[in-house]
Amino acid sequence: MVTPAIRMFRRLEGLFCVYKPSGVHWKLVRDSVETNLLKGLNATSSQPLPQEVRFLAHPVSETEAPKGLTLSASSVPVLSKHPLVTGPEFQHIRVGVGHRLDAFSSGVLVLAVGNGNKALNDLYRTRVTRDYTLEGEFGTATDDFSHTGRVVERSTYGHITQDKLDKVLAMLQGANQKALLMYSNVDMHSQEAYEMAVQGLLGPEGKSQPILTGLRCIHFQPPNFTLEVQCLNETQKYLRKVVHEIGLELRSTAVCIGVRRTRDGPFTLQDALTHHHWTASDVIQAIRQYHSKTNLKYTHTQIKDTALQPPEESTT
């Protein structure tokens, strides 16, 4: 028998994303979401207890003389099926985590429930890119490239201008574009490479070194600056190291004071659920919105492909 909790769980199966705050481990985020989903599932109205027929003795009053045992058939609930006896209907659900964020990073964290874990694996096989916002500060170098590490060097930064920074960023992006082509395992002079580049499918096969597909400065006010990065196969430590290397290229030093993921594949900050919305009802709504968005995109792709097909020749 399909219970209300099982019906709700079927609506929870899918992909959604949450906003992971800085200073919180991703495992704590996943466990908090799982606990809230279990509470929502087990709070649904339970099925009425099944009934069974039992022969019960009639009570005899003290004034009446005993005339033997009198039994009557009665329908009583099966107490062995009571929730207080069997425990909650759902005691564990599988919540999968997409590309992880370390404890000192924040932003979009993709999660999956139930059968959504298979869709999560399929999503990351399509070489999705991720966007980050990196906040840096010139003049200091630390042992772990972050502002919380042990300071190993201090330097001046008055000679740094935004034009010089943009030139270094362009140089780094060009080097990463060459790496992207090298790891693609596709002949760059072939028609296949051209079609993949047009569709944005050109990328490394399987695991590769971290690759920056886009890099630009969106804020510059020395000693502080902000970068917008698009990348593949990255880690947050690697992104902090990029900020450090940018400082060295500018004949100075730099540390990363903040890493925030703003997009992970199709999921953006607008889709991310904040801590107060990590509930079953909000997750169901987020999964429904994701499905509607992907179905709409698939429909538009079909229409576009149909329009590009040549008309069939009529035969007489």
Automatic annotation (TrEMBL):
Coiled coil: none
One Pfam short name: TruB_N
GO biological process, one term: pseudouridine synthesis
InterPro entries the record matches: PsdUridine_synth_cat_dom_sf (IPR020103), PsdUridine_synth_N (IPR002501), Trub2 (IPR039048)
Domain called Pseudouridine synthase II N-terminal: residue spans: 92-236
CDD domains (alphabetical): PseudoU_synth_hTruB2_like
GO molecular function: pseudouridine synthase activity; RNA binding
Family: Belongs to the pseudouridine synthase TruB family.
Identification of the protein by name: Pseudouridine synthase II N-terminal domain-containing protein
